[in-house]
Amino acid sequence: xxxxxxxxxxxxxxxxxxxxxxxxxxxxxxxxxxxxxxxxxxxxxxxxxxxxxxxxxxxxxxxxxxxxxxxxxxxxxxxxxxxxxxxxxxxxxxxxxxxxxxxxxxxxxxxxxxxxxxxxxxxxxxxxxxxxxxxxxxxxxxxxxxxxxxxxxxxxxxxxxxxxxxxxxxxxxxxxxxxxxxxxxxxxxxxxxxxxxxxxxxxxxxxxxxxxxxxxxxxxxxxxxxxxxxxxxxxxxxxxxxxxxxxxxxxxxxxxxxxxxxxxxxxxxxxxxxxxxxxxxxxxxxxxxxxxxxxxxxxxxxxxxxxxxxxxxxxxxxxxxxxxxxxxxxxxxxxxxxxxxxxxxxxxxxxxxxxxxxxxxxx
Amino acid sequence: xxxxxxxxxxxxxxxxxxxxxxxxxxxxxxxxxxxxxxxxxxxxxxxxxxxxxxxxxxxxxxxxxxxxxxxxxxxxxxxxxxxxxxxxxxxxxxxxxxxxxxxxxxxxxxxxxxxxxxxxxxxxxxxxxxxxxxxxxxxxxxxxxxxxxxxxxxxxxxxxxxxxxxxxxxxxxxxxxxxxxxxxxxxxxxxxxxxxxxxxxxxxxxxxxxxxxxxxxxxxxxxxxxxxxxxxxxxxxxxxxxxxxxxxxxxxxxxxxxxxxxxxxxxxxxxxxxxxxxxxxxxxxxxxxxxxxxxxxxxxxxxxxxxxxxxxxxxxxxxxxxxxxxxxxxxxxxxxxxxxxxxxxxxxxxxxxxxxxxxxxxx
Lengths: 363, 363
Prior knowledge:
Two copies of one chain form a homodimer.
Chain A: E1 2-7, H1 36-48, E2 53-58, H2 62-68, E3 77-80, H3 85-100, E4 105-108, E5 114-115, H4 118-133, E6 137-142, E7 153-156, E8 166-172, H5 177-186, E9 189-199, H6 200-210, H7 212-224, H8 230-237, H9 246-256, E10 260-265, E11 269-270, H10 275-282, E12 284-285, E13 291-292, E14 300-304, E15 310-313, E16 318-322, E17 327-331, E18 335-340, H11 347-356
Parallel strand pairs in A: 1-2, 1-4, 2-3, 6-10, 13-15, 14-16, 15-17
Antiparallel strand pairs in A: 4-9, 5-11, 6-9, 7-8, 7-9, 8-10, 12-13, 17-18
Helix pairs in contact in A: 3-6, 3-7, 3-9, 6-7, 6-9, 7-8
Pfam families (chains A, B): ManC_GMP_beta-helix, NTP_transferase
Domain MannoseP isomerase/GMP-like beta-helix (chains A, B): 299-352
Protein name (chains A, B): Mannose-1-phosphate guanylyltransferase
């Protein structure tokens, strides 16, 4: 088995901790001193060995990935010249795996998710591998625990039962709260965490059938991979690869044709999507339901008369609050954020405003 | 005429901007690049010349005062070995003035207050000097503009009229809101801003009569001042000087005996007492009634969807808020504060909590 870890995205909802130059997956948002990428590596290596683990990342983060994962062979760091969305990244990895190990089963997991029950995760992956061997494009869907509006959903053929393979009927976009509540009640919907397991030959055939505009340049690039032509071919063809999400390009149409299966997963998954989650999952209690998440940067937090405050002192400073409730305070070396907890998901919008105002060196 | 500027107090309600080692009066909280001390100096020098202006300060701040006021003669910086409250500071200055210029009129004004109408201030001082020449212990009371509970009040004999000298019947402690509202409606009460004008011989005679325990060591210290015995005498006697406020020791009992007069002042006075005031008086509008006060440290502020926010970026960082209202955010090199505006007066309490927690290097 081969495992691919797409390490992309800047995690703007975790700004100013997560930056374009130092994105979420490189940060120790795990409750230990390991970064999300390192924790992902630690979790996956027992499933496939480092020799069969590939990380796909952007040129800006290749050095960070290489330094954080010294046990990962250099040839297993696939560096995209620039981001072309998930279909390009996963297709490149699938084609390189297919070239190195034809017909292999390949799984793909994001670099910046947290999983607490590693044994259950491994068990679920093994069930998904069974489905992949049978020729399905498999996903691992997350059993939802709340009517979350921040994720897409997988509509299953039957009520979801832990570790039981079933058909995915449809990929659903991020829903409204009303729709999400209906999904949760129906019991037939899983969160789409972009976890995929398939045979590379099956995936590449699906890709070629549905998106030849992606498949053709990827095939030519893969042909040159591990040869002296690699860089030249990548430089010539990568700009032509369409930017499209793998769900949209391959998984949704394949689901319509009955070729997508899923295994419901229930292993303490979180995408550490915003600071509210960081506080809840990784923070320590500082009184009155307030939480402080201290990174290795040496900062400290003092919360006085504050309920539901989340403090992230990541800038070697003392951060104190007085008389404020339900507020997120993040301190870093060059930027401070104060945000109402109900607006934690809107930090992306704030970063857009900062971009418009020319604060590019703080993004 | 001689002028004394007691430059003491750490301004804890302006923490973390104001620190024990770098107190409020040394900060440019004036709307220009001049510090409060420098603005005070600029305002007073035309009244008395630098030769007749004395600054009384603590040993920790003597260097700061000397550097900020290069035009002030060195012998006019009176350095207290440690703070002994306002009676000791003012009595020392009065005794030194009396030694250098017997029978002079001396005025005393805090180093950390802001005054916008300098001409009116000078006019009011001249009226107070008239009263001082007649042998009264004069104060300049501030015509109140709101039922402030953070100041003491002067009860006058008649309704206060701008620049008209009258008797002070009583010094009132900081009142409750109910009492302060009554004071405001009565029209016979002024804010006590600790502005005094008197003949040094009159003041020292009052002090000797009422507090010989203060007057005696101060007289002996003054006798040695400007001689080779100054330091030795100060070291021996200063620890014996009782800690007491000049209002309590001298002014209140003198008022009971009809010896205190006042001139109501109305010259745009503020003690820049908390960050709410800093935002209102010195900040620039950043939208929706939010204000940013930028010091020379190069920080910047971005407020998104926030009403009544006060941001003080004093740490060369970008400070941004999203979706929070009526909050004070102060960023400095080593500490960040987030405080509800209604709690701006309680920051002193926060500093006490920090002291208990051993954060001494941040105070």
